[in-house]
Design brief:
Six copies of one chain form a homohexamer. Chain A is α+β, with helices and mostly antiparallel strands and 162 residues long. The first copy, chain A, has one domain: Molybdopterin cofactor biosynthesis C (MoaC) domain (Alpha-Beta Plaits), CATH 3.30.70. In chain A, strands 2-3-1-4 form a four-stranded antiparallel β-sheet. Chains in contact: A-B, A-C, A-D, A-E, B-C, B-E, B-F, C-D, C-F, D-E, D-F, E-F. At the E-F interface, loops of E face helix 2, strand 2 and strand 3 of F.
Amino acid sequence: MSIDMADISGKEDVLRIATARGAIKLKPETIQRIREKTLGKGDVVTTAQIAGILAAKKTPEIIPLCHPIPITKVDVQISVGNSTVTVESTVQSLSKTGVEMEALVATSVALLTVWDMVKPYEKDQEGQYPDTEIEEIRVVSKTKQPTKNSQGREQHETQKHP
Amino acid sequence: MSIDMADISGKEDVLRIATARGAIKLKPETIQRIREKTLGKGDVVTTAQIAGILAAKKTPEIIPLCHPIPITKVDVQISVGNSTVTVESTVQSLSKTGVEMEALVATSVALLTVWDMVKPYEKDQEGQYPDTEIEEIRVVSKTKQPTKNSQGREQHETQKHP
Amino acid sequence: MSIDMADISGKEDVLRIATARGAIKLKPETIQRIREKTLGKGDVVTTAQIAGILAAKKTPEIIPLCHPIPITKVDVQISVGNSTVTVESTVQSLSKTGVEMEALVATSVALLTVWDMVKPYEKDQEGQYPDTEIEEIRVVSKTKQPTKNSQGREQHETQKHP
Amino acid sequence: MSIDMADISGKEDVLRIATARGAIKLKPETIQRIREKTLGKGDVVTTAQIAGILAAKKTPEIIPLCHPIPITKVDVQISVGNSTVTVESTVQSLSKTGVEMEALVATSVALLTVWDMVKPYEKDQEGQYPDTEIEEIRVVSKTKQPTKNSQGREQHETQKHP
Amino acid sequence: MSIDMADISGKEDVLRIATARGAIKLKPETIQRIREKTLGKGDVVTTAQIAGILAAKKTPEIIPLCHPIPITKVDVQISVGNSTVTVESTVQSLSKTGVEMEALVATSVALLTVWDMVKPYEKDQEGQYPDTEIEEIRVVSKTKQPTKNSQGREQHETQKHP
Amino acid sequence: MSIDMADISGKEDVLRIATARGAIKLKPETIQRIREKTLGKGDVVTTAQIAGILAAKKTPEIIPLCHPIPITKVDVQISVGNSTVTVESTVQSLSKTGVEMEALVATSVALLTVWDMVKPYEKDQEGQYPDTEIEEIRVVSKTKQPTKNSQGREQHETQKHP
């Protein structure tokens, strides 16, 4: 059985948009510190956003069979809940293949960056992480939109999954 | 509030080991195809293992405040269950700081690589992923072991969290 | 004398395909182990394929004057002979410049990965490699094909060199 | 306040050219050695050119909110004056966004590479650099040119700043 | 004349610290917006800090003859003046060679990131940057400090250059 | 069969040196142009040396199961013969594992860079490369040398293979 990077040469350049979401479960005290911006390592939210944006651009380097595509927008939204921090990343590209992997990579790396920045507050006395967990990384939606050069076709084909 | 890469100059080089685990929920048919090795893109297990190993080495490039450390071993185990594929990554380093982020990055990227390779089987007719989900990424254990040069201290300090 | 990255701004986006081939000479026992999949480090063939695919995407980062181009397909075929393992890589891109360097980089890195995985079996008692050799890395063929947007021109211009 | 990678999906692919310039102030003896090519580490000019070209391609990896764009040309010119080495980099791309950051990154990295190669000659007895300084990194010009597909509009919009 | 990456095999692992500083000249209105955090692209200061930290770790990849060294700390301080933003980066490593290039790269990339984030406010009507300039990138200080394993030698050898 | 990055945690840090050599066969006219430095793209020798040095540092990123090690020296020698250009790369590291892969990667990438820079002179009228070939990439020697901290053991264990 051979490894195969799919041939997308014949596919059309279309505006493709994908959104992926995930969360990290943290201790209430850690959540409190993120809200109050009293974490020793600095601004978690901005750092995780930047890490996510940079990671989206690194997708073809990280995921072996992903194609290099010209990303035209990355948006990483981070919301701090009561017991979790949620990351939702949206990626756009005018390309021959979808961008759900880019959105998933951005989300995963933003969540991992949150973990890295709250390590001292999440570790117990033995240095373990009994409570910390990254959970429910999903593709929220995946869309194609007709470009200026391909009008006349249906406006877009999408469907949201909560 | 400033961003701060922690100063580890004064910490000791000790053998540090961390294991992280996570899972991806897939359709039964996809699981079946992975078992039977009938996926169009090729051997999911080996590809995910290699992606995980390469990603562990990329950790300081992906997670902004991680230090570059000399990884001495990466082991990515993948097990195919009934409705999930589970990844468990163990990283070792003789270094001044722990390797849990490296193990978490290896696990996350291996799971994302599984997703990438099963995309055609997981998508529904609208191109969405109603069932696919990465879940429960955790640090299973984190250990320090005395090196040849630091004998006499306690054997190791560890504790497993299932 | 100045270093110059060629100006390709005025060239046309055409489907470009290139195939490069090379081989690595190994001990008969090593070849036997690859066939029987009894190498300690794991599946040589899949690992070399993935390394080759990832390397093709890294070409503009590795070869100083190569342009970044949108690769649409990479295929790395590995065949195990009696005394050599042969790698043949084919790369496609819809781009302004050819992809022979990408195919050569994929082939070279796949061959180097084979070497890395068989080191313990190829080394002699002094730790040297008297028999191992990478040999005959060549461009097998280089083609242009008219795209949907440029029909009417000649079908393709190619020629095979054995 | 959220970090935002600008959405360029709707912008047109146009030939974009930018030139950036900067200088590094060096000791007269160091300048003399560069001219006479008697530096221990080798040919400063060619090394700095290559470092600049490679860095231009790395721009979206280095500058968090830069988009990945298909660079079609990089030209790094280095001139050795009496007390400074001047670098002038020109980058071209057929893309949806300008290339001034790419030209600035190429220029900055070429200047840093010059510094790295002349370290032994610039350091004083305490290992400090009292004289060395990178200065006046500027965008010299930024231009758009109509492509074959967008004729009829104005020829180009440019203006030079000395 | 050959290119030569210096041999540091015989040098001692010592704690090495270097600080580099530089500035970017901006329009008063842009400075005002940075202070008030009303820039469209988001938090300039945190983004530039993270870009600088990540770049310090990339130094051996960007500067051809730099050695890969285990950085133990990076600190990027950004201060907003009346007409300039100043960046001062300090890098530490327990290594065989100094870290001034790492500090210079961190400073340069943080300054370039500031530029990237204020582009819309610095451009004039022709899309040029008549006022923007990166200036006076210097090594402020370079130090060696005895490690725990090498006590008895002089405390440190440093000297500040304003 | 699992992929396995070997555990080197227990191995000793020793000065390790490896030399790898290979050649590229070129047309006599191309060789002539390299000698006379009349190639359009610039100084082949320096460019190939730098590409090789940078590639040696990238080895753990390119070869999946290679460990990241602190390279202390890379030397890439290029000699222009009558019908071939020969590259010989020597890499040193004070590390727990050998550096033959680093030397092989440096040599391979330097040879590929030569190819890239002579493309216009090697292509025939159909755009093919009937004569160009990379050949005989071998490990010339692999050595360990006792460090200052491990004196008393045998001087080194080496053996040359022509």
